[in-house]
Design brief:
Layout lengths: L2 H21 L3 E5 L3 H8 L5 E2 L5 E4 L3 E10 L4 E2 L2 E2 H20 L3 E6 L5 H16 L2 H9 L5 E10 L5 E5 L2 E5 L5 H8 L6 E7 L5 E7 L2 H11 L12 E6 L10
Parallel strand pairs: 1-12, 4-8, 8-11
Antiparallel strand pairs: 2-3, 3-4, 5-6, 7-13, 9-10, 11-12
Length: about 250
């Protein structure tokens, strides 16, 4: 991928983020004293796409770099994320069936492989890889201006319809702050100033959790969420409908 293609990719990722945040009426959850992190998305139109980190947001006295990555609770192989890879295969099969038979409506029940172990490993492996580049991110931000630099991570759990655990017989929506392994990994990186966790939920809704990375906030999360540590994720099977719309002029063909 050349520099121009990379720039287009970053712009598309930023536009996709704006679309998800602006059009799907997300739920926003500010964890403890993390409003400073939340205010970035209150001014999402001021965020600018960039390269290493993926975006930046400039205030009067500070420039904030935002590095983004996604993960899910599906296992990975050499082809990538299991769910993403298999969804592409389903899409390709549907497209071929549509072309071959003219069928316009499809309904597929997709069995999703997922587990807490895969969720933790997918997050932590990718997180550690991006964390190694923080000094590079800060150097690149210094090329923009000489203001104080901060680094936030925007981490997207793109598991379709999100993840659920059962606690005392009740379904609970699961997010990264409810995993001890993930909190342990975050705790090692004081050089990251804040986190935005983007979680896919049902009915195309997204939930955003905002966390200022302080020892006090992490200790509160450990205490509040320790009751969920180690609980296995519920199966995440779902039924997906796909429709190919016909133009009115084609109806009588």
């Amino acid at each position: 991928m050349n520099k121009f293609q990379e720039k287009l990719k970053k712009v598309k990722e930023y536009n996709d983020l704006k679309f998800r945040y602006s059009d799907y009426e997300p739920k926003n959850i500010v964890l403890y004293d993390s409003y400073d992190v939340r205010k970035i998305f209150e001014n999402i139109d001021l965020i600018k796409p960039f390269e290493k980190p993926d975006m930046y947001f400039e205030l009067e006295d500070v420039i904030i770099g935002i590095e983004q990555f996604s993960f899910s609770s599906s296992p990975k192989n050499k082809e990538g994320d299991w769910l993403t890879y298999n969804s592409k295969i389903v899409d390709e099969n549907i497209q071929q069936e549509h072309i071959k038979t003219g069928k316009n409506k499809f309904c597929e029940h997709i069995e999703v492989k997922s587990s807490l172990n895969d969720y933790n490993n997918s997050f932590c492996e990718t997180f550690e890889d991006h964390s190694k580049k923080i000094s590079t991110y800060k150097t690149h931000l210094k090329d923009i201006c000489s203001k104080k630099t901060e680094i936030y991570f925007l981490i997207s759990d793109m598991t379709i319809d999100g993840n659920i655990i059962m606690y005392n017989g009740n379904p609970i929506f699961f997010n990264p702050t409810m995993s001890k392994k993930i909190l342990d990994s975050i705790k090692k990186h004081h050089e990251i100033d804040g986190f935005i966790f983007e979680c896919s939920a049902v009915f195309n809704q997204y939930i955003y959790f905002y966390l200022k990375n302080t020892e006090d906030n992490l200790n509160k999360l450990y205490e509040e969420n320790k009751k969920y540590f180690g609980i296995e994720l519920e199966p995440n099977n779902f039924t997906r409908q796909t429709t190919f719309y016909r133009y009115k002029d084609d109806e009588n063909e």
